[in-house]
Design a protein that fits this description.
- By secondary structure, the protein is α/β, with parallel strands linked by helices.
- The chain contains 13 helices and twelve strands.
- It folds into two domains: about 200 residues, inorganic pyrophosphatase (n-terminal core); about 130 residues, Diaminopimelate Epimerase, Chain A, domain 1.
- The longest helix has 16 residues.
- Bound molecules: manganese (II) ion (MN).
- The site of manganese (II) ion (MN) has 6 residues, from loops.
Length: about 350
Amino acid sequence: MMRDSSLIERLDGRLAEVCSGSSVTILSHWGGDADSVGSAYVLSKLLRGRYGASSTGFRIPDSPTSHARAIMAKLGFEESEPEKTDLYIAVDVGSLEQLGEMRDKVLSSGVPILLMDHHLHHDDSSSSVIEYFVSDRYQAVSEMVFDLAERVGWRLDLSQSTALFLGLYYDTARLSVADGETARKICQLLSCGIVPNDVLAGLETVMEESERIARILSASRMKVYRMGDWVMAFSEVGAYQSSSSRALLGVGAHLALVGGQEGDIANISLRATGEFVTYTGLGMGDSLVKIVLSRFEGSGGGHRTVARLRCRGRLEEIYQHVIRHLSLRLGVQPVKLAE
Ligand SMILES: [Mn+2]
């Protein structure tokens, strides 16, 4: 069963129209993840093998996370960019901000952009060059690519099945939020001969020394507040802010902001548990980012439970602003936990 057959039909039709003889660059969101890498890998095979693209490339804006790098190594998939790009396909990009360093170049290139995603999008009317193929009925872009492959009768080989499996596995938080339809697709992918123990073994432990130190420093420097039932952590570290905010959730925080200060610019990773977002109605990519940008000049965006922003200001002041705002919104006084 296809979750959204009209979307897949429209996507198939469009790819058939624009890809033949074209050189296509697939773009991930910044840092990349299993879903963006997995879907891009299979999509690049489909574009060349089924839709007649003359060449394909893949770029992860900013630098790939160690997890994304490990998955690419497993698939034998590398970043590359054709000399000339006739078409961009952005996968798993929840907001244009997530194109990071590549955003301006891509948007001003005049090259058409197709955006495939499974998150809700605010229509960005300023960018008429973008055509959206978006449906939040899908649990991952990898699943959209699965449906596309099925529609066109494309046989997934073992590494392509592995790629889509990894995308679905990690985008459903290791299947914990997978529904029956995803489970059916996972079974079909696994039946190609994937051994989860082999595939996942190398992926669960990858961490570079510098990332490890950043995470440990962010934990040792964090300031913790309790607001009602919620525990919120704020910290600062020079690199790996995203990995560090994930680590702070692992430590037990419901909400974690980890920033790095570069002169008067702050780069902040915002992350919360699904529970926090559900009960407070405060999504990271929309509400929290807006709260910060209502006062500090900059840009940002992301998904429900994870977002990133870059703005002008001191981290200390930004955090105080967020804490005041959250206290008002939640109607509880913040209590700072002893350091
Ligand atoms: Mn995804």
